[in-house]
């Protein structure tokens, strides 16, 4: 059994459409960057294959959402939801396989579920910045990543 700690960051571009209930406009939400710190608990079924579970704290930055009207294509209604950071938790599982033909080179694949919780987000007027309403939201992100990893000091 193996136990370890880690930290990672992602500068991605995960986008989704947002349609607050009963307000007549839609916007595009973008997860701009995130980071996580956590722990892994793993086991080695063979000398080259590591399977693990992970969990910990995560934080994500969502960019400002500018809304467009449903009734007139592209007509801005003059409202937005400000950019915000959200903290939460994550859990994941994955494996890492030592390729063997180059020392320290492994193939890693991981699934991660991150939950940023429920929030009441402001909807503000673009001209004044005044809050004119709120919307309830629950943000979560699921990711599947696969990568080549080269470890330094692989002989220790």
Secondary-structure topology with pairs:
Layout: E1 2-10, E2 14-18, E3 25-46, E4 49-62, E5 65-69, E6 79-81, E7 84-98, E8 105-125, E9 131-150
Antiparallel strand pairs: 1-3, 2-3, 3-4, 3-5, 4-7, 5-6, 6-8, 7-8, 8-9
Description:
There is one protein chain. The protein has 156 residues and is mainly beta. The two termini are 18 Å apart. The chain is built from no helices and 9 strands. The chain is elongated, with a radius of gyration of 21 Å. It has a 6-stranded antiparallel β-barrel. A hairpin with a 6-residue loop joins strand 7 and strand 8 (105-125). It has a single domain (2-150), classed as Porin (Beta Barrel). Helices cover 0% and strands 73% of the residues.
Range of strand content = over 45%
- How large, in whole angstroms, is the Cα Rg? 21 Å
Strand element count: 9
Broad shape: elongated
Percentage of residues in helical conformation: under 10%
Please, how many domains? 1
Structural class: mainly beta
CATH architecture: Beta Barrel
- Indicate the CATH topology: Porin
CATH C-level class is Mainly Beta
């Amino acid at each position: 059994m193996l136990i370890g700690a880690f930290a990672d960051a992602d500068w991605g571009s995960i986008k989704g459409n947002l349609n607050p209930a009963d307000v007549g406009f839609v916007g595009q939400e973008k997860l701009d960057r995130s980071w996580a710190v956590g722990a892994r608990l793993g086991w080695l079924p063979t000398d080259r294959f590591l399977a693990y579970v992970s969990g910990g704290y995560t934080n994500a930055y969502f960019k400002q959402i500018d809304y467009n009207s449903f009734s007139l294509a592209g007509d801005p209604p003059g409202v937005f939801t400000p950019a915000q950071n959200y903290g939460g938790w994550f859990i994941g599982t994955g494996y890492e396989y030592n390729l063997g033909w180059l020392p320290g080179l492994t193939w890693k694949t991981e699934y991660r579920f991150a939950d940023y919780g429920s929030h009441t987000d402001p909807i503000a007027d673009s001209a004044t910045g005044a809050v004119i309403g709120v919307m309830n939201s629950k943000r979560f992100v699921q990711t599947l990543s696969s990568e080549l990893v080269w470890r330094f000091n692989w002989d220790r």
